[in-house]
Amino acid sequence: MHDKTRQQTFLTLSKGFINKMITINDIITAYEKTRNSIIKTPLITSDRLNQKLGFRLWVKCEMLQRTGSFKFRGACNAILSLPDDDAPILAYSSGNHAQAVALNAKLIGRKATLIMPKDAPMIKRQATASFGASIYLYDRKNENREKIGDALQTEMNAHLIPPFNDERVISGQGTVGIEIAQQCKKRDFYPSQLIVCCGGGGLIAGTSISISESFPNCKIFAAEPEGFDDMKRSLAANKILSNKLGKHSICDAIITPSPGKVPFEIAKKYVKGGYVVTDQEVCDAMRIAYRNFKLVTEPGGAVALASVFKPNFKPLGQDIIVILSGGNVDETLFSSILAQKLES
Fold first, then answer.
1. How far apart are the first and last CA of the chain?
2. By three-state DSSP, how is residue 324 classified?
3. Which of the two ends of the chain, N or C, has the fewest CB atoms closer than 10 A to its terminal CB?
């Protein structure tokens, strides 16, 4: 294949996935493709917490997934969907998608380059590098990672795997919902509400499709950090809205400028609304997860859990599921959060 033709093929492969509405069949196919590579993470509850809350709270433990977050699922499906051409793999990420792409590329013997912000947690940069990937650092305040990705894709003739605005990735993330449905049915209960941490929207998009297929009356909500509630506001406005510049949050893993186009179209169909939590509420949730479930979560991974403990939270039913989406947290930060007093 000539270089020009090959380059155009790569661009089509990477960008052509955003034009098709994803179905439950796509997610089932992704599950069958990845089931021997991913970990079926547990769905657990705490009797002590349930007594205090007045309803049963279930947590899906995606911090126990390979590379420490749900991102391994989407990266796995995307990379296993690539043609067998030995072309390099390219992705951009604040850390969790980077690690997932790096490991999946290593498992099939492909070279990977990850575009990461200079202020990404060191634990995530080191983990990504440990899988043999090259890292391209950028300044997230003054540079655009999508533009960098497009330029490097052309330069490297690489397959670009975006973190959320991609059919293959969203279908892979939807396997979380396949597992949740299996686990609920095994325990013989019907979830009334599902709350999902939301950045670009890949996880909530894929999971909402698979959960709605099995439990059509389950109400699905996004959970976002204060100042980054773009999905909630976009759903209310029925159009994609961006976050204001200059905002900061401890939840580095799910800070995005706006929802992805594909996730937003799916969310419009399945997601009822969203919750917004403060950094302090996130820290409280991280301590709750550790003390009641013995689980380590990163800030962005605890946002859905934090929403349940907001003073004005009103449960929609008796069985509520939250997804703990990741556990890649710096040890020093985690220790300092655990040392804070929890009023409960």
1. 64
2. strand
3. N
156: closest CA among 118, 112, 116, 105?
112
| Residues 6+ positions from 293 with CB-CB distance below 8 Å | 44, 46, 59, 61
Residue ranges and CATH numbers for the domains of the chain are 24-68+170-338 (3.40.50.1100), 72-168 (3.40.50.1100)
Residue 60 carries which DSSP code? E
Taking only Cα atoms into account, the Rg of the chain, rounded to an integer number of angstroms, comes to 19
Contact partners, residue 30, CB within 8 Å, separation at least 6: 73, 77, 168, 171, 172, 174, 175
327: nearest Cα among 231, 207, 222, 197: 197
User: Kind of pairing, strands 56-61 and 43-45?
Assistant: antiparallel
Q: Are 259 and 201 within 8 A, CB to CB?
A: yes
Report the percent of the chain where pLDDT is more than 90: 84
327 Cβ contact partners less than 8 Å away, ≥ 6 residues apart = 63, 64, 68, 69, 295, 296, 297, 298, 301
CA dihedral for 314, 47, 49, 190, sign (positive or negative): negative
Residue 100, C-beta contacts closer than 8 angstroms, at least 6 positions apart: 66, 67, 69, 71, 72, 73, 74, 75, 76
Q: Which of 108, 106, 102, 103 is nearest to 82 (CA)?
A: 108
> In this structure, what token pair is assigned to residue 58?
């279930």
185 pLDDT band, cuts 50/70/90, is very high
- Among positive and negative, which fits the CA dihedral 30, 32, 38, 40? positive
Judged against a pLDDT cut of 80, whether residue 2 lies above it is answered with no
Contacts of 22 (CB under 8 A, 6+ apart): 167, 170, 171, 174, 205, 206, 209, 262, 266
Q: Which two tokens stand for residue 3?
A: 């270089």
Distance CA 115, CA 135 (A): 6
